[in-house]
Specification:
elongated, transmembrane, hydrolase, 8-stranded mixed beta sheet, alpha/beta, about 280 residues
Length: about 280
């Protein structure tokens, strides 16, 4: 029976080889399935993050404090599209006026006394955005720009000239207003060329150009502005990259005046004397 041994060994070897090949095929299939599952999970996670940016962008762009935190009772009201906006008037009755548009989380009432003291020859209007302070409604770019134009149209007949000051997010509102109305002078504090481009710097992995509805593309409107413009920059702006401000400045038909406030940050620029002096000189 020894003559059967070689055949048996060959059969065993063939069977072992078959098992190895089957194992490799099974391992390969498992690897492919694992990679497919991981790819699907990655797509789902990426899509979920993009969806959260798309649907949650307004909560990122607009960050109002609860209305019950408003310490100063409003003394001025503008009603547009049935929405009541409530704000403040400082130095009433002056020939010239100033409209102030603040940042995305700013309590503009905190600037009442300073602006009134710095610019005593101007009536100053501070009107919180929709959903901010004591104002009703929900903010959006279209609503904020429309409200700004309505405010200008309401107060302009009572004054010989109306200047506009926009800070950070408010610069996006101020630029669009100045492109559509005869603004006497325009001051832009820590401004940007496009909120989309700012966001792209923070989220380079996301298709923000496709996702963002709140775009504030000031560069598109800058060339239409003929009034004198002052850009006030913070030396250490940690929110708006210098390149974004540079791009806005380049978009104007006539190069704006510039003031860099030394040592200032994005949220502290108002605390520096150079900021006050710049406003006083330009809006005298």
């Amino acid at each position: 029976m020894d003559f059967l041994a070689p055949a048996w060994e060959l059969s065993a070897m063939a069977h072992a080889a078959h098992n190895r090949r089957s194992g490799r095929r099974a391992g390969g299939r498992m690897f492919v399935r694992t990679m497919v599952v991981l790819a699907v999970l990655a797509v789902l996670v990426y899509g979920g993050i993009c969806a959260s940016l798309y649907f949650g962008q307004r909560s990122l762009v607009y960050q109002p404090e609860p209305s019950w935190l408003v310490r100063q009772p409003p003394d001025f009201e503008l009603v547009r599209d049935g929405v009541h906006l409530r704000g403040w008037v400082m130095n009433p009755g002056k020939p010239r006026a100033l409209l102030y548009f603040g940042g995305n989380a700013e309590r503009i009432e905190d600037s009442r006394e300073e602006l009134a003291r710095w610019l005593p020859d101007r009536t100053i209007y501070l009107l919180p955005y929709r959903g901010f302070g004591a104002s009703d409604g929900k903010p959006s770019e279209a609503a904020l720009v429309g409200d700004a134009i309505a405010l200008f149209d309401k107060v302009a007949p009572s004054h010989t000239a109306v200047a506009v000051l926009g800070r950070s997010l408010g610069s996006g509102v101020a630029v669009q207003l100045a492109a559509q109305r005869p603004v006497e002078r325009l001051v832009l504090v820590t401004p940007f060329d496009s909120l989309v481009r700012v966001a792209a710097g923070y989220y380079p992995w996301a298709p923000v150009n496709l996702l963002m509805r709140e775009r504030f593309e000031s560069w598109r409107h800058a060339a239409a502005i003929s009034s004198p413009v002052l850009v006030i920059r913070a030396e250490h702006d940690e929110v708006i990259p210098a390149a974004r401000t540079d791009a806005l400045i380049a978009a104007f038909g006539q190069r704006p005046a510039q003031q860099v406030v030394a040592d200032a940050g994005h949220n502290t620029i108002q605390d520096f004397a150079d900021y006050r002096v710049s406003l006083e000189r330009f809006l005298h």
